[in-house]
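TL;DR need structure tokens for one chain.
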Amino acid sequence: MLTRLVARGFKNLDVDVQLGPFTCIAGPNGVGKSNVFDVIAFLSALAGKPLLEAALDVRGGAGRMGDVRGLFRRVGTQSADTLHLGADMIIPEKGEDQLGQVAEASITYLRYELDLRYRTELPARPNGGLEVVQEKLTHLNLTDARKLLGFPSSPTFRESCIKGRRTSPYISTKDGFVLLHADSKGGKGGGNPRKVRAADLPRTVLSTAENATEHRTATLARREMLSWTQLHLEPSALRAPDDFTAPGVIGHNGGHLPAVLYRLAREEGAPIGVEPAVYSRVANELSRLVEQVRSVHVDADEKRQLLSIVMTDRHGTPHLASSLSDGTLRFLALAIMREEAHPRALLCLEEPENGMHPSRIPAMLGVLKDLAVDTDLAVGADNPLRQVMINTHSPSVVVEVPDDSLLVAKLVPGPDGVELATLLPLQDTWRVADDTVAKGDLLPYLNPTGATPDVPPEPGGARPSRTARRVRDRTDLHTLLLPFEAHAAE
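>> reply
TL;DR here they are.
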């Protein structure tokens, strides 16, 4: 779970923000909100690929052209030479490395920091390359966890996922060398670290932590970052049937829904002739969007060796996924993701409202929030440590999200006068920030004519619960409607 993101020098970002289980980033086109997802994707790629390959995979990395300058802050025709990335995260207490060896973290609350420099003098790459300047992986004190997390959480939640003890770093940088320290028994460090000159690194040191025996915590941190996923749900992929041999994992484009749902049904082990309960649960979720849904199942065509999702309406008419609308397919994908027993730790979705009727947006947001971990409960099989981030410029989405889940992307003057993108929370929410969203910045998202109902206070005058209060429920923002109402009256 990514609890804090820092990005400076990456494209136009100047970001240091706390993140909760569910986050909505709103902003106009071109402000840089998609760059937030890009930097998360870059961190994830760096955990598994060489520096240049990771950079070229990210939007703006120039693809096969080989010029990665697009990832660095640009001022006119000049680009910055350095960038700084940081991530605070909660990792699983246990997991496996690539060889199936079991790893148990010595502590589960970590901070990762990485400084990169753009090099133009590398002879092997005429377009330049990337150099590691500094890399760190350190523990965060458990006693400070509640303050560092920021978002409301119960002691039960924190005790279930933040564990362990550590007194020394896992990765450090000293005198131009990056050191990978071993985990000793008891998690107190020790042993001779692996020492590599930073300027010679073709990849991050974290990406080489693949041995659970020697580097158990770093191995789990790497696997956590690799699971951060940016989804681009493409209708063609969502509609496609699957071969019997297709992977039972949803692709970045939303592909392999039939194979995943079929796998979940088989794992459930329902008796022959009895419909798996997972089909009923997915159908119930889908009925929040499409009232006529009676059932959902996977048709296994033995002759053609194909798996296809079929939705049956209340009249008993079957509809293949290939005939469903884009919005229905997106909703179906989210409903299936919710059923995953071993989900990806972080899901980033761009404009999930695309293809949705405005009246169905609350249902879509409900599924997205249900995908995220419940921080009032202990983390477990029924409450996986899963996190959801979306971005949008839709007023229909912004007014429906919980107010403490909203971050507004805004351009602010940088030190050299060039505008940089930052993320600002609303006033009176849990995030600690030097600045908050000005009321005027929310004007484009508020309905100028629709009714904005008051939310009655809870007994004793307490503010509405964090799960109930939406942006539209903020009584301190209601006055923003007055200029528009006055204009309409004229």
